[in-house]
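Re: weekly structure request thread

Next one in the queue (250 aa):
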Amino acid sequence: MISNRKLFCFLILTVTMFSFMGFAHHNEKLRVENYENLNNLKKSSSPEILSMVNVRHIGSASNQIQDGLLFTYDDRNAKSVRIAGNFSSWKPVSMTRSKYGIWYYFKKTDSDEKAYSYKYLVDGTWTKDPKNALKTNDNASSYVSITQIAGKRLFKHITYKILSKDTVEFRFYRPNAKFISLVGDFNNWNPENDLMVKDKDGIWRLTKKLSPGKTYRYKFYIDGEWEIDTFNENSGSSPLGELCSLLVLP
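Done, posted below.
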């Protein structure tokens, strides 16, 4: 026999899940993961955007579903793995070890950070994320890793779009920005050459003709600050040695 409490929890979870699925479909679907299943993680990856269901909170006042980032690190021999970043004021936070030796930490995205930078502290030794290609110099002869998403822009997973062999639409979601320009190899990194235009959906766009068969480095100049293309996984170094995004036209 199923107890009344278990039945109540099941009904609450079912309703919550269906409500979320409709919400995610409206924005952009995220993978849904049960927090209890993280104990069965068998491999690590770069930070993953997902929605976490915590059945422990069913029937409580806490949110059952939270959107955020799952950080994972693979070291079966480590005794302690912690994560530190700009989201924790660089104070190390303990990670949890799965039964297969994968360490994990879930960060709810409830702020408007431009990007999350972080490192792992493994048995007292600092290391960047080996599964994340995005990194930048920490000015201490080392590197910090950078996530590809930022806070409330969770559902705007957009980057450039190749329209034809020589035409690219550059896109960036920043509804509150007042000025965004595209800079890169194609305009001598001049922020005055390629001004982007904001649509009603908060996405800034610019269509540009480029020669095919080449690799282009680029960034965005946003209200006086330089930013990479958040959801473009390909990165390189700008002429100044800073992190930038890469576009490869076939």
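Residues 97 and 103 are 4 Å apart (CA to CA). The chain has two domains: 30-153, 161-248.
Next request, please.
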